[in-house]
Design goal:
The chain has about 220 residues and is mostly helical. It has two domains: about 10-110, no CATH class; about 125-215, no CATH class. Helix content is about 60%, strand content about 5%. It has nine helices and two strands, in the order H-H-H-H-H-H-E-E-H-H-H. A hairpin with a 2-residue loop joins strand 1 and strand 2. Helix 1 (about 10-20) packs antiparallel against helix 2 (about 25-40).
């Protein structure tokens, strides 16, 4: 079993090979993928393409989106990794290309930047606001209203959306754990035994799909 201490280039390479050699969909592959992603995030070697091109706040949103998509690609395309190259060289190559794709997508849609959670368009409270002091954001009644909505799910739509092959891991379950029980994404990944980028990707995709539902009640 691979420990979760920070790994150097050779250890990361070996872990990536271990993932490749593990049977698809196996617990061993899932476990090693989680270790790999965790070590990539804490390697201190992640690149930051196009820094200085945007104001810091906007850049961070773009970067977070690109990083999330990069980690998802690493998980889904790990078999394409060539061990001749360092893992972080591959990761940063994918990150650089993905950042450009995110920029193009944002420009295509004609918006300034793409936030990571519910975009506050003046009619709905952002889920991210739940992690900030209420006094700095919205009245406590607004925060409580959103939390109540997540719990009650009037039309049952939040609980209908679930991870593929995991009917027990619903959008509602993730939202309640994250924004009502105040669990971290890392702890959710460990609890559900699902890679962090997979959880992020599922949650954000469903969030966009469910926006009209949020607007209807909030």
């Amino acid at each position: 079993m691979v420990n979760q201490d920070f790994m150097g280039d050779e250890q990361l390479r070996q872990l990536a090979l271990n993932v490749q050699n593990a049977p698809p969909q196996s617990a061993e592959r899932q476990r090693n993928l989680n270790y790999l992603v965790n070590n990539i995030l804490h390697s201190g070697k992640l690149g930051h393409p196009h820094t200085g091109k945007y104001p810091q706040g906007i850049y961070q949103d773009l970067y977070n989106e690109a990083l999330q998509k990069t980690l998802l690609k690493i998980c889904t395309k790990i078999d394409q990794y060539n061990p001749v190259h360092p893992v972080m060289a591959w990761v940063n190559f994918v990150l650089s290309k993905t950042f450009i794709d995110v920029e193009k997508d944002v420009q295509r849609r004609g918006i300034t930047y793409l936030p990571q959670a519910l975009k506050n368009d003046m009619t709905i409270l952002s889920l991210d606001d739940l992690n900030s002091p209420v006094s700095d954001l919205h009245p406590s009644t607004e925060v409580e209203k959103l939390r109540q909505f997540l719990k009650e799910d009037p039309e049952g739509r939040l609980q209908e959306e679930h991870l593929q092959n995991h009917t027990d891991i619903t959008f509602q379950k993730i939202a309640l754990a994250k924004y009502v029980d105040d669990l971290t994404w890392d702890s959710l990944s460990e609890q559900f035994k699902i890679p962090l980028p997979t959880l992020h990707s599922f949650f954000n995709r469903r969030l966009q799909k469910l926006m009209p539902y949020f607007h209807k009640y909030l």
